[in-house]
Amino acid sequence: xxxxxxxxxxFGTLVDDFASSVGQMHAELAAALAVPYEAFxxxxxxxxxxxxxxxxxxxxxxxxxxxxxxxxxxxxxxxTKAVAIRLQHTRRALEPRPDAVTTLARLNDQDYKxxxxxxxxxxxxxLWQETALANLVATPIFSCRERLKKPDPRIYHLACERLCxxxxxxxxxxxxxxxxxxxxxKVGLHxxxxxxxxxxxxxxxxxxxxxxxxxxxxxxxEVLQLVRR
Length: 229
Ligand SMILES: [Mg+2]
Prior knowledge:
Layout: E1 5-8, H1 18-21, H2 25-33, H3 37-46, H4 48-52, H5 59-69, H6 76-93, H7 100-109, E2 113-118, H8 123-127, E3 139-142, H9 143-146, H10 153-162, E4 170-174, H11 180-187, E5 190-194, H12 198-201, H13 207-211, E6 216-217, H14 223-226
Parallel strand pairs: 1-2, 1-4, 2-3, 4-5, 5-6
Helix pairs in contact: 2-3, 2-6, 5-6
């Protein structure tokens, strides 16, 4: 079947790996909230899954939860500051990779629909419209909003439904975190691994990448050749 749609992963694919770009965020958050850094960071990391599957629908709720577990009540001013820090770091993490905007724009020009399927917390849909990618993506799907995450087959089916396309007419381009490529293949999409440098620095996230035998590209622009095959 001819490719009609290209669905992209976000972190590690259209933008850098999230963890590599948020830098000092935990330290700044802990300082703003006046909580011990180590304990805060540990709890924040332990609640990643909850943020990704939409247990918190606001930034405030995710901060309040972690502080609540620590037995700390957050004042209004502290909360405002912490939310601003979280959004500011996330905004920076959403800076598109150099070839992302041009590749998506060319796909649009050539009448391929572009989708997005991201395992992410609520900050991403909040900030999405600010990004240079927003106008180039037809239907972004955020795990936190759908309360489903990759590699759950239902979230790939949902993406195809919203894009009005059969899975077999879709490429799925990703860096292979969370076994997302195998998940895509099981549903019938054509998975493509994007090789990136963060796969070497964060091997714990990329077991699938190391074992991947399927289609592989070394840069996003290569998608423009793949869709024509
Ligand atoms: Mg990724």
